[in-house]
Write a structure and sequence with these properties.
Elements lengths: L7 E2 L13 H4 L5 H9 L3 E12 L2 H6 L7 E11 L2 E11 L18 H7 L4 E2 L3 E4 L7 H4 L6 E9 L2 E9 L1 H5 L2
Antiparallel strand pairs: 1-6, 2-3, 3-4, 4-8, 5-7, 6-7, 7-8
Length: 177
């Protein structure tokens, strides 16, 4: 995956023009899944695009403070309301994370990751980083528009083991209601 975006912490965003309607989504510390379920009722669904073991990307490894990890389970999904994709999400779960009790994170199927993470008492979320995506980013395939796509990512630690969750807010999300 060719990630060329620059990730920013919230206090570094003074020169970035984030749409006002998007800020509450980017910086909400609660479960995105729970928020989408509340907005969509029974129409919420997770569409799994892919889930496979890959070589761990060096930039993503650095984000999780991993030096020696080599492989990760990469899960790409769309979070949808009805037939409309609202969020493209990419989760990177290093092999060291899916051992022992955390093995369940490798077998989610179409269950939402957020529901599992926020129910896990050992979960700790690190700082949210945000980025505007370059035009060649995978998420633009699902945006179906030329509008900018912004994303956020966080490292979640479950029992001290990292999971990198990146969520990209598609323009349809802001047009919903």
């Amino acid at each position: 995956m060719n990630l060329k975006q620059r990730w920013y912490l919230r206090h570094q965003l003074f020169n970035q023009s984030i749409p006002v309607s998007l800020s509450p989504w980017l910086f909400d510390a609660s479960s995105l899944t729970a928020r989408l379920v509340a907005d969509c009722d029974e129409n919420f669904s997770v569409q799994v695009i892919s889930q496979q073991w890959r070589k761990l990307d060096s930039e993503e490894a650095a984000a999780m403070s991993l030096n020696d990890a080599r492989s990760a389970l990469v899960r790409q999904v769309l979070l949808c309301c009805g037939d409309t994709p609202l969020v493209y999400a990419r989760t990177v779960i290093p092999a060291i994370t899916v051992q022992g009790a955390q093995r369940r994170y490798a077998n989610m199927g179409s269950r939402p990751l957020g529901a599992m993470l926020f129910a896990d008492r050992t979960m700790h979320r690190e700082a949210v980083q945000v980025a505007m995506l370059p035009a060649n980013h995978e998420a633009h395939k699902y945006a179906k528009t030329d509008e900018p796509v912004w994303g956020r990512r966080s490292v979640f630690r479950v029992a001290g083991k990292p999971i990198l969750v990146s969520e990209y807010f598609l323009p349809a999300l802001l047009k919903k209601k």
